[in-house]
Amino acid sequence: MQKTILHLDLDTFFVSVERKLDSRLKGRPILVGGLSDRGVVAACSYETRGYGVHSGMPMRMARELCPEAVVIRGNAGTYSRHSDEVTDIIREQVPVFEKSSIDEFYADLSGMDRFFGSYRYATELRQRIIRETGLPISFGLSVNKVVSKMATGEAKPNNQLKIDFGYEKPFLAPLSIKKIPMVGDKTYQTLRNLGLRQIRTVQEMPLEVMQQVLGANGGVIWRRANGIDNTPVIPFCERKSISTERTFERDTIDVHRLRGILIAMTENLAFQLRRGGKLTACIAVKLRYSDFNTYSRQLRIPYTSADHKLIPQVLDLFEKLYDKRLLVRLIGVRFSHLVPGNYQINLFEDTQEALRLYAAMDRIRERFGDKSVIRAAGMGARTIGRMHNPFDGRPPVVLAHRKQ
Asked: Is 249 a catalytic residue?
């Protein structure tokens, strides 16, 4: 049976949500992201792109390029709720789907042509999403995920495109090599140095040449340029790690503040582990200094999800990593080597009272939010928290303005 893969993408999602909430923003150039000089553009409207603005750009530069743009800080909770509305519609209509990000979905419609017609079904699904949520959405339909995603990119804004079986290579040939998924700025520059501009040229190159230049990634890029992709639609993907980090509005050498933020981060991540029924065996601390040099250290530990086990280890890593002569720009904590399980009581060190205290605090957090109960040492880091359980299969909301 021939595969039929649908790719759905909510157009300029953060901007569209803001316009839905405030109709006065329609037609105006909009930037969503950090408001400070260190802020980053998380999303921008099509009106700003003619000025050279794009997502991921420093907000200061974006404001200089488009001074008349309306700058909005954005709200992760609001975007999550609107994303969930779209997800519920897709879940109701599609038997197998993958939510790859807050605004992006894949669905496997293989076999639908025998009964209803995949393109017609996808069209009606898109129309329902627009009608019930008021958000613009585009889709691409083809035999695999890569071609469908690139078709969606060509269909935007707020449109749809189907690539018939056998026409994948002709469709891809005239497109820029930068539109191939996995081709970032560095890879793009490497390919441009080779004289490559269009995907057509990559299609004409031998596979071995691409592999010699880019190694294993060269083979992946060559296959994608030729419309070859066997990646399945995965309804749920188990997380291998969990992390959090914060960039400071101003570089700091306040060690007391840094320790407090690390404690708050570790406490919250430990709660997320217990909420998801997970244990970690590897912790890491990350520091970025004012000169943008970034360092990290990690440590293997016995499997645990207890605050009183993790916090001392994190602080110890920080002490070994921190250079007191330099200003700190960013700090972060990561737990990896995750496995299913619950915290096991230590016969000689733990008490029943401590375990009951953890259970009580977790119940309060589940009911009233992550930040409802925190250690006094971490009270200076009130922004540490999450909108939902990171192990429930939903992708994280990434907002570039999360700062401390």
From this structure: no
Distance CA 300, CA 284 (A): 9
Residues in the chain: 404
DSSP at 178: G
Sign of CA dihedral 213, 216, 218, 222: positive
pLDDT in tens, 387-396: 566 666 665 5
Burial profile 22-56: b = 16 or more Cβ within 10 angstroms, e = fewer: eeebeeebbbbbbbeebbbbbbbbebbeebebebe
Residue 315's beta-bridge partner residues? Answer: none
CA-based angle 360:236:285, to the nearest 5? 60
Find the catalytic residue in 18, 47, 98, 104.
104
Quick: pLDDT tens for 220-267: 999 999 999 999 998 866 678 888 888 888 888 889 889 999 999 999
CB-based burial label for 215 (10 Å; 0-12, 13-18, 19+): exposed
304: phi > 0 → left, psi -120 to 50 → alpha, else beta; which?
beta
DSSP type of residue 27: T
H helix intervals, 243-369: 255-275, 307-321, 352-368
Report the alpha-carbon distance of residue 390 to residue 272 in Å, rounded.
7
